[in-house]
Design goal:
single chain, 404 residues, alpha+beta, OB fold (Dihydrolipoamide Acetyltransferase, E2P), Dihydrolipoamide Transferase, Chloramphenicol Acetyltransferase, eight-stranded mixed beta sheet, 10 helices, 25% strand, extended
């Protein structure tokens, strides 16, 4: 029996996918549920599993855009599995061929031992200019390079100096192209503005240093910074609901729930999975969900549904060493908070200079529906919660908040 494998729908509104890579070769024997291809949609990279066991015949090439529901391969379910589990088709070994000797037919140039030889003075000048004598045509007797030749030798900017000047061209994945389109769309269709502030991370450092081992032993996940930032954002969104809104035509839609998108780096590029109803999660709940989504993104198992929606985004460029940035809004959302690296800096505390771990934070927002007062107030609320987490995020009971 010949089974036609068709492209399943990765999610609502997706009409085509791109064959990113075949994981098997034409004629191979595949097992049921074995991953046979990676397909890119405009939202995620997904694995395509074999529906039955048998010999496979590929009907699409890598890089092809294939409509949802189209046939991408055939599986002969009547084919017997090769002995030893080997592939049904073994690649043929090509015999190594000896390189052919070539004989140049071009006439030899009339050169003498002096051709290209630089005088001592010329050598010194060329060395100071970092110019190879082979690139200079000498005007002296028998082609010698004179001092005047060396003085007049001035390489233009970008003159090759013997280094590697190769280039390569590769096709952008459908996911990468869609990310590019959305970023340009956000820049062109929103009145985006960014406001900045700084956060003294000392209180969070103190809590983590005291409780992180106990927290990990009890809950199986680390006590990171994302739980503090997520819960601080949830608190600020409740105080400034306009930041938890988006524009739909001539209407403004505000949400009474907080679906927080977190930007993570996956094997295929930036992905933004969503923590649903973050307002109902504890520190343990946020950390567990962040870990789950990050692992799924890293392993290429994230689904479109897990990246759909979101009312606000948190991006952590600090893990890559970023000191400051202006994050781009994730449309149709109206706000995104950028976290950055933590650096010890001198700050004034009660009239004295102290060294504190400081993080710069940035809020990019759509000025069409979020005013400056609301944006600044939102970021100040985030700062207050992070600098006094015991009061604002833990209800003055650290152990209860951490469920210890």
């Amino acid at each position: 029996m010949i089974l036609e494998m068709k492209v399943p729908s990765p999610g609502e509104s997706i009409t085509e996918v791109e064959i990113a890579a075949w994981l098997v070769e034409d004629g191979d024997y595949v097992e049921k549920d074995q991953a046979i291809a990676e397909v890119d949609s405009d939202k995620a990279t997904l694995e395509l599993p074999a529906e039955e066991s048998g010999t496979i015949t590929l009907k699409a090439e890598e890089g092809d855009a294939v409509a949802v529901g189209a046939v991408v391969c055939l599986i002969d379910t009547d084919a017997e599995k090769p002995e030893g589990g080997a592939s049904a088709s073994e690649p043929k070994k090509e015999e190594a061929s000896k390189p052919e000797e070539t004989v140049s037919s071009s006439p030899k140039e009339n050169k003498t031992y002096a051709t290209g030889t630089a005088s001592p003075a010329a050598k010194k000048i060329l060395a100071e200019k970092n110019i190879d004598s082979d690139s200079i045509s000498g005007s002296g007797k028998d082609g010698r390079i004179t001092k005047e030749d060396a003085v007049n030798a001035t390489p233009s900017m970008g003159t090759p100096t013997g280094g590697n000047r190769g280039s390569s061209r590769s096709k952008m994945s459908m996911l990468r192209r869609k990310v590019a389109e959305r970023l340009v769309e956000a820049k062109n269709t929103t009145a985006m503005l960014t406001t900045f502030n700084e956060v003294d991370m000392s209180p969070i450092f103190a809590i983590r240093n005291e409780y992180k081992e106990t927290f990990k032993e009890k809950h199986g996940v680390g006590l990171g910074f994302m739980s503090f930032f997520t819960l601080a954002v949830v608190r600020a969104l409740k105080m400034y609901p306009a930041v938890n809104s988006m524009i739909d035509g001539k209407d403004m839609i505000s949400y009474d729930f907080c679906d927080i998108s977190i930007a993570v780096s996956g094997p295929k590029g930036l992905m933004v999975p969503v923590i649903r109803n973050a307002e109902n999660l504890s520190f343990r709940g946020v950390e567990s969900e962040v870990k789950r989504l990050a692992l799924r993104a890293r392993d290429g198992q994230i689904t479109v549904d897990e990246m759909t929606g979101g009312t606000f985004t948190i991006s952590n460029g600090g893990v890559f060493g970023s000191m400051l940035s202006t994050p781009i809004i994730n449309p149709p959302q109206s706000g995104i908070l950028g976290m950055h690296n933590i650096v010890e800096r001198p700050v004034a505390i009660d009239g004295k200079v102290e060294i504190r771990p400081i993080m710069y934070v940035a809020l990019s927002y759509d000025h069409r529906i979020i005013d400056g007062k609301e944006s600044v107030g939102f970021l100040v609320a985030v700062k207050e919660a992070l600098e006094n987490p015991v009061e604002h995020l833990m209800n003055n009971d650290i152990k209860k908040a951490l469920e210890l």
